[in-house]
Amino acid sequence: TRWRVLDRSQLADGTRFARVTLLPVTGRAHQLRLHMRHAGWPLLGDELHGTDEAAAAFPRLCLHASSLSFKHPAAQRTGGTDCTDGVVTVSSDAPF
Predict the structure, then answer these.
(1) Is residue 40 predicted with pLDDT exceeding 70?
(2) Is 18 left (phi over 0), alpha (psi -120 to 50) or beta?
(3) Sheet strand arrangement including 83-84
């Protein structure tokens, strides 16, 4: 997993956190959550792989795909306006 810190902040209760960009390398299930836990930076709200403190720090898992790209068979045939060479990219800002 490749990562980069975007900013650091603190919750009202004093819990410090960092907003990071993560880029999975292998695409394995739970790769990002497991790598962050192993590095000592569990994801806030992660009840499955996080620490008790990290799981309790936020009411939902703080993991969000800001951009997804994939080859779409129909887009490859029709060359839609929202794709390049049959690759569709969908983007969304993080809700937290």
Answers:
(1) yes
(2) beta
(3) 67-71, 87-91, 83-84
